[in-house]
Specification:
single chain; about 180 residues; alpha/beta; Rossmann fold; 6-stranded mixed beta sheet; 5 helices; about 20% strand
Length: about 180
């Protein structure tokens, strides 16, 4: 019976995915849209939100949305235990804060708990005029310097629900590869 339990537990792998990024990047809107399929009013996250995203009958991801305000960032490290993928959300229209996002991302990726953990960067708010291209965001965040890590950048719109399902299917594929 113990062997069966162990086999069953291996089948039910919990895939914790951490959603991080600067405040106002759209993390909570993104999570709400993913979980409900609806556009929802959200407010700044104090602490975290969590939900389970079912990709198919056998695959689900537990997605943790962690508040992005400066005062919250020192607490991010407490969410990294058992993290299988990091999804870093940026506001693709906010050119002014891209350098801050780059510094914050670099600092998070230095954490030992994230060694070898795949990174998905979501360029949110692509439905708005003047949003940056994937290449611009990749350059601004200096993603090429993370060549020891599996990473990807995808455009999305949390508000409109564009690109979200595809992005999280990619996240799951990255988890399986790593």
């Amino acid at each position: 019976p113990l062997l069966l339990l162990h086999a069953a537990l291996k089948e039910v792998k919990i895939n914790n995915v951490i959603l991080m990024g600067l405040d106002s990047a759209g993390k909570s809107t993104l999570l709400a849209r993913l979980l409900t399929g609806q556009e929802m009013e959200t407010s700044p996250t104090i602490g975290f939100n969590v939900g389970t995203l079912d990709l198919d009958k056998k695959t689900s991801l537990t997605v943790w949305d962690v508040g992005g305000q400066k005062s919250m960032r020192p607490n991010w490290r407490y969410f990294l235990d058992d993290c299988k993928a990091l999804v870093f959300v940026v506001d693709s229209t906010d050119r002014v804060r891209m350098h801050e996002a780059q510094k914050v991302l670099k600092k998070v990726l230095c954490d030992e708990k994230l060694r070898g953990i795949p990174l998905m960067v979501l360029a949110n708010k692509k439905d708005l005029p003047d949003s940056m291209t994937i290449r611009e965001i990749s350059n601004q965040l200096d993603l090429d310097s993370h060549n020891e890590r599996l990473w990807e950048v995808q455009a999305c719109s949390a508000l409109k629900g564009l690109g979200l399902q595809q992005a999280f299917i990619s996240v799951h594929k990255m988890i399986k590869k790593s």
